[in-house]
Amino acid sequence: MESVNNIIVDEERPLKIYFIPYLASGHLIPQADITRLFASRGHHVTVLTTPSNAQLFLKSNPYLHRNYRVQIFPFPADQVGLPAGIENLTGIKTFDDSLKLHSGASLLQEPFTNFIEQDPPDCIVGDFLYPWLHDLAIKLRIPRFAFNGFCLFTICAMESLRLHRMEPTGPYLVPDLPGKITMNTAPPKFAKDFIENLLDTEAKSDGILVNNFIELDGEEYVEYYEKITGHKAWHVGPACLVRRTTEEKAVRGTEKSVLNVEDCLSWLDSKRVNSVVYVSFGTICQFPDSQLYEIACGLEASGCEFIWVVPEKKGKESESEAEKEKWLPKGFEERNKTKGMVIRGWAPQVLILGHVAVGGILTHCGWNSTSEAVSVGVPMITWPLHSDQFYNEKLICEVRGIGVEIGVDEWSNDGYGEKEKVVGRLEIEKGVRRVMDGGDEAEGIRRRVEEFKKKAREAVQEGGSSYNNLTSLIHEIRRLIRHKRLKLHKFE
Ligand code: UDP
Fold this sequence. Notes:
Elements: E1 2-4, E2 7-9, E3 16-20, H1 25-40, E4 44-49, H2 51-58, E5 68-72, H3 77-80, H4 95-107, H5 109-118, E6 123-127, H6 133-140, E7 144-147, H7 152-163, E8 172-173, E9 182-183, H8 189-202, E10 208-210, H9 214-217, H10 219-229, E11 233-235, H11 246-250, H12 261-269, E12 276-280, H13 289-302, E13 305-310, H14 321-324, H15 332-335, E14 340-344, H16 349-353, E15 358-363, H17 367-375, E16 380-382, H18 389-399, E17 403-405, H19 425-436, H20 440-460, H21 465-491
Parallel strand pairs: 3-4, 3-6, 4-5, 6-7, 7-10, 10-11, 12-13, 12-15, 13-14, 15-16, 16-17
Antiparallel strand pairs: 1-2, 8-9
Helix pairs in contact: 7-10, 13-19
Protein name: Glycosyltransferase
Family: Belongs to the UDP-glycosyltransferase family.
Keywords: Glycosyltransferase, Transferase
């Protein structure tokens, strides 16, 4: 126990931490894992969220009813014009509805604030999509850490553009980065401005939490970030490794898996090691039928075994043959009965990726999928769509050499499928073959990703880089609490 100007600070007392994740699976899932990391160290975790998103934190949670609780707030669906139960970007199929979801999320500010003010925590970990948390934390004089779901390499590239006030319109060299990174496409202005405003408020927090391990981002990017922003980044991941049992890994989303997990695993058991390519584009992407058709043809032409996750169409309980033939070539399912599996809906991704039969992932480079693939040593075939994904692709393919590019050089504006240009079957087939055919290039990639898998596991074990970072972060939170209370004391 330490006494600072009559303020008693108990170094052993568990911290009371509130987590406030944004209402998108890509943000909720990693934060559900990060909350468990804090709970595993004995700290008191409270998650503030809405009824259907709460399931993600409640299900198969070994800390629940011990030092972990979920505070549930109704989502104002009727006020923003969304159907009841739609409270997550994953359930949203149009750009207009995504704006309604954002409005609903903004309306949560008031009930969240009331709750936090009535019973303030020692510290807040808040999503960067809730910039209003900044003023609240200042008012309550409590530390605030931010989470944006990106890896630090990508944050550095974004910060570099922000600080240099660059407005690229075509291919550009990212200024000043520790490595020479040339992007073959530029973010649209609206997307760049949106992110930069959020990064601006994020930089005023007490630090950011990163769901990655330093060895993958690179120590030089940690130094670069601290140098250019004067801000601190805490690598605590890959947080997905906190889940150890099959059940914990199976219930990672808000959606229920559309297929029986055991059936899926026993199908994979029947396949050779590294013979199956897993295809998924995350929780937001809605490809048009024409693009799905090209994927089907490309996969079939590659001759590879596959699991292909295709999000369900809104309001379509069942699909007529004629509707299906718009996106799936005639006879595709029959021809590929033993060779492939099309999952129309939510798949238990972490379990699938972790199976030895899976030898590659065709991915949109969402950071969670990337981090999950690296954690189990699965090479990537990269097809970025928007936001952080083009930078992630650079880290995967050029910097770390753990994937190959399909060759996409155009942003899909918002992930809701109105993009005209489709990626052709030949490019898809070529990308899949490069990773799955076992040639020299593929072997090199497989060897490197296997090394990063090992490093990822070491990082989260006792004494590893992410494990030690979490310990230092907890010390830092205590130091900040002391510092902020002392300042308060001086004002009194
Ligand atoms: N995911 C899943 N099953 C699915 C689709 C996605 O479990 O059918 C999970 C995936 O494992 C990852 C997250 O959803 O944890 C997607 O996050 P990512 O950052 O890769 O992409 P986003 O959805 O944010 O674009």
